[in-house]
Design goal:
Length: 212
């Protein structure tokens, strides 16, 4: 079973960025909890989180715990600041063409697509940075920056519970696509005249043995 580590940025005494009566640490935790719930409900996957409550965890501890657990991937969720706008993702600079790069592309595409259901969202790009949680982790690792907390238009979306749930779930789907996780949801199909095991299995991209 694949092992996914979800990292909610900041926490406890470290509030992260502040703006528009919002705290980064609160939003990142909501995103992580939504992503974890979606992954556990829809896929056979083992998920661990850096924190499930408002506690402080050092950057090295975040990476060390994921390494010790043997996580297959590491995804860290953050909210941006600095009066900009939009969405961006990061991987470690030396990881061009690596598995981290592939993970970044899956996450970036899935999350940005969902965000744009809620209005115009600037695509700030797939970037690199020497962040500790990207540098010190042993597995493919990506950090997402989900809008700007100190920009009013972005903050209004970050105050929207539906937006946060869908963005958290988009993280989960990007992870599932990268790991090629099969869905564990039951699909019901009524056999039609002329159906065969082969044609029905092909329709749902499964083997005849699985269908039987």
């Amino acid at each position: 079973m694949k092992k996914v580590w979800l990292d909610a940025g900041h926490g406890g005494t470290d509030s992260g960025a502040l703006g528009n009566n919002l705290r980064e640490k609160d939003i990142t935790l909501q995103l992580v909890l939504h992503a974890r719930a979606y992954l556990e409900h829809n896929y056979s996957v083992d998920v661990q989180v850096t924190r499930s409550t408002d506690v402080f965890v050092s950057l090295s501890d975040r990476a060390n715990r994921a390494n010790a657990w043997g996580a297959d991937i590491f995804v860290s969720m953050h909210i941006n600041a600095g009066s900009g706008t939009g969405f961006e993702t990061y991987r470690y600079p030396s990881q061009e063409g690596s598995q981290s790069s592939l993970l970044q592309k899956e996450l970036h595409t899935e999350i940005l697509t969902i965000m744009r259901k809620f209005g115009t969202i600037a695509d700030r790009g797939l970037k690199t940075a020497n962040y500790a949680v990207l540098r010190e982790t042993n597995m493919p690792a990506v950090l997402t920056e989900n809008l700007f907390i100190d920009t009013t238009a972005d903050a209004e979306k970050l105050k929207n519970a539906t937006f946060l749930r869908e963005v958290g779930e988009a993280h989960a789907r990007g992870i599932a696509k990268y790991l090629n996780l099969p869905s564990n949801q039951v699909t019901f199909y009524t056999i039609q005249s002329g159906d065969t095991f082969y044609s029905t299995a092909k329709k749902y991209n499964i083997t005849v043995q699985q269908l039987q």
